[in-house]
Model the fold of this input.
Amino acid sequence: MIATRVTKQLGNNLPLGLTRNLEKYLGYSIVSLRKHLEQQCRTDFGMDLINCINSGDYHIDHFVPLSSFQVNDPNSPKFKECWAISNLKVIPADVNLAKGAQVVGAYSDVTGMSGSPGSGL
Done:
C-alpha cells in the first residue's frame, strides 16, 4: 500500500527498483511502520491494524499532508520527512475526509485522541 502511494507521488521521477529498495528511501523498515500503526490502532481503537484498515472506517493519514511536500525525488530530505513514521497515523475515515489536505490544529484536535504524531515510538 505505501509503495503504491509513493509511486503515485513520484510519478515519472520513479527510480528503477524503488519498490525493492523502498525501506532505503524511507529510512525505516516496513515492519517498524506496521508496529507503530498496529500499536496506535490497538490503543486508540481497540482493534488490530488489519481490521482497522479493512473495515473502511479508518485511513492511514499524513499529519502534514502529502500535498504539502511537493516532492519528486526520493533522495530528498523532504521525501523522508513526508513519509516519516511520525507523520503517519491511523484516523477515522470521516475525520480524514473532513480535514482534506490540511493540517488542522494539534494532533488531538484532528483525531480526538491524545498524543502526537509518532508518540509511542
Remarks:
- The chain is about 45% helix and 10% strand.
- Residues 67 and 101 are 7 Å apart (CA to CA).
- The first helix runs from residue 2 to 10.
- Residues 107-121 have pLDDT under 50 and may be disordered.
